[in-house]
TrEMBL record:
GO terms for molecular function: metallopeptidase activity. It holds the Pfam family Zn_peptidase. The keyword Electron transport does not apply. It is found in: Membrane. This is Metalloprotease. The lineage of its organism: Bacteria, Pseudomonadati, Bacteroidota, Flavobacteriia, Flavobacteriales.
C-alpha cells in the first residue's frame, strides 16, 4: 500500500508506552485473545465464558511504565495516522457530495489498557469505536494475534481495512444509523437483535470498501495483493470462522458480525461500486 507523504492529523493520538495504571489483560496471551474475540463476536458463549476467562487472567497485572517508542513503533504510528488522514479526506468528500458536513473522529493508539467514554477497555477489546467520544481505539497487538493465531494473511492493507471498518461505525453514528438500529433492537429476541447487529457490522464493511474505492481514485494507494489482504482479514473475523476455531462448531443465531463470506461480499460491493446508497444491509435481513 502506498501511504507515505500524507499530512498529519489533529485527531491522532499515540499513547503507546504511557502508563495505563491498574490491572491489564496480557494481550499476547491465549486467554487475552480468546476474550478479545468473544467480546468482538458476541453470543451466549461470550456471556458465559468471558467472566470465567477474565477470572483466570486475574493476577496477571503488570504495572506499565512510560517508555520511549522504538523506531518501528514510530513508523507504525505514522502509517496509522496516514490511514486516518485518508479516511478524513474521503469521507469529507463523500459527505460534501451529499450536502452534508463530515465531523472528523479521533483515533487513539494504546497499549494494554485505556479509559474511554464507553468505559475502561483493555487489549482484549480489540479495535473499537466509541460513539460517546467519537473515537477509534486500537492496540496494535491485535493484528499480530489475528495473523498468528487465526490465520489472517496480515499486511498493511489488512490494518487499513480494520481502521476503515471502525471509521464506518463513525459514519453510521453521524448518519443516525446506529441509534436507529438500537431502537429496532428494543423488544426483539436475542436472535433477532443479533441479526440487526450483523447488518450494522456488514454495513461498516461496505463503508470500508467505499473508502477503498474513493481512496484508490484520489491517491492511487493500492498495490498488488492489497485487496487480498483485506479479504483475508475479513474472512478471519467472520463469526463462523471465529466460532469454528474457538468452539469447534458454529451457532448462526449467535452471530453478531456476519459470516466470512458476508463480510467479504459487502467489502467488495463497496469497493466495486463506491456508491453509499447501495449499502442497505438491513434490507437483506432474513
Amino acid at each position: 500500500m502506498k501511504w507515505s507523504g500524507r499530512r498529519s492529523s489533529e485527531n491522532f493520538e499515540d499513547r503507546r508506552g504511557m502508563s495505563s495504571g491498574g490491572k491489564t489483560i496480557i494481550g499476547g496471551g491465549i486467554i487475552g485473545i480468546i476474550i478479545l474475540l468473544l467480546n468482538l463476536f458476541g453470543g451466549e458463549n461470550a456471556q458465559m465464558l468471558t467472566p470465567i476467562l477474565e477470572q483466570m487472567n486475574q493476577g496477571q497485572s503488570t504495572p506499565t511504565e512510560q517508555r520511549a517508542l522504538t523506531a518501528a513503533e514510530i513508523e507504525e504510528g505514522k502509517f496509522i495516522e496516514a490511514i486516518l488522514v485518508d479516511t478524513e479526506d474521503v469521507w469529507g468528500k463523500i459527505f460534501q457530495e451529499n450536502n452534508m458536513q463530515y465531523e472528523r473522529p479521533n483515533l487513539l493508539l494504546f497499549t494494554d489498557a485505556v479509559e474511554t467514554a464507553c468505559g475502561n477497555a483493555t487489549s482484549a477489546s480489540g479495535p473499537f469505536y466509541c460513539p460517546g467520544d467519537q473515537k477509534v481505539y486500537m492496540d496494535l497487538a491485535f493484528f499480530e494475534e489475528l495473523k498468528t493465531r487465526f490465520g489472517a494473511q496480515g499486511g498493511d492493507f489488512a490494518t487499513a481495512y480494520v481502521i476503515a471498518h471502525e471509521i464506518g461505525h463513525h459514519v453510521q453514528t453521524l448518519l443516525g444509523t446506529s441509534s436507529k438500529m438500537r431502537q429496532m433492537q428494543e423488544g426483539k429476541s436475542e436472535a433477532e437483535a443479533n441479526k440487526l447487529s450483523v447488518a450494522l457490522e456488514l454495513q461498516a464493511d461496505f463503508y470500508a470498501g467505499v473508502w477503498t474505492h474513493y481512496n484508490q481514485k484520489m491517491n492511487d494507494i493500492l498495490e498488488e495483493g492489497d485487496i487480498d489482504e483485506a479479504l483475508s482479514a475479513a474472512h478471519a473475523v467472520g463469526d463462523d470462522a471465529i466460532q469454528s476455531k474457538i468452539q469447534g462448531h458454529i451457532v448462526p443465531e449467535s452471530f453478531t458480525h456476519g459470516t466470512s463470506e458476508q463480510r467479504k461480499y459487502w467489502f467488495m460491493k463497496g469497493y466495486k461500486t463506491g456508491d453509499i446508497t447501495q449499502g442497505n444491509t438491513f434490507s437483506e435481513l432474513r
